[in-house]
Amino acid sequence: MSFMKLKAISILLTVINFINNNKKSGQWWQSLHRTMLRRALGKTFRLIGYTIQYGCIAHCAFEYVGGVVMCSGPSMEPTIENSAVVFAENLSRHFYSIQRGDIIIAKSPSNPKSNICKRVIGLEGDKILTSSPSDFFKSHSYVPVGHVWIEGDNLQNSTDSRSYGPIPYGLIRGRIFFKIWPLSDFGFLRDSPNSHRFSDD
Fold first, then answer.
1. Which of 66, 94, 118 is the last residue of a domain?
2. Do residues 106 and 182 share a domain?
3. In sequence order, what are the beta bridge partners of 104?
């Protein structure tokens, strides 16, 4: 066998070995790539699962337990000042245990995108004085079934049921019972300054 033939065979064997080595290397890299991809996808799906679980827990907590709320506007002064931070619980509305005198957060009947903070003056079946106490001829309104009558503690600066009538119970979002801010007023809420409005016989 001539030298040239041996040289050609040697080169051919080198090429074959190179191809085989690259093929094995490619398989190893593909296997590593698939393993890393599976791990990354596994971590991503676990993270998504945890996020959904915690999101559901947070939603249930805010929907059924309660949360922190900032009240804006002067309608509940002096009980709740403008920009006061309060804690509202949502269990009372779910168990239909809202009472006269409770301060509630509700969806505005005139603007469902905003919330209002008012005090419950009357429950279904209650007779509410709608005229001024000094009027000789007094007018009244009865709260229909499934509704509540709400008013602000600051009667001179509040848009409430005296303007838009009783609101459906379903608009109630929660009951405020504790003030967080300002710290000088930290604690439970004071009684209504308009307790004479709760009922009229």
1. 66
2. yes
3. 118, 175
Residues 97 and 129 in one domain: yes
Catalytic residue status for 118: yes
* Structural domains counted in the chain: 2
Tell which residue, 177, 108, 109, 122, has the closest CA to residue 150.
122
CATH number at residue 179: 2.10.109.10
Q: Which of 5, 24, 72, 118 is catalytic?
A: 118
179 catalytic residue (yes or no): no
pTM of the entire structure? Answer: 0.68
86 shares a domain with 52 = no
Last residue of a domain, one of 49, 66, 83: 66
Domain carrying residue 127 = 72-197
Residue 143, pLDDT above cutoff 90: yes
Q: Pick the catalytic residue from 2, 5, 24, 75.
A: 75
pLDDT in tens, 169-185: 999 999 998 899 888 88
Q: Does a cis peptide bond (omega within 30 degrees of 0) precede residue 78?
A: yes
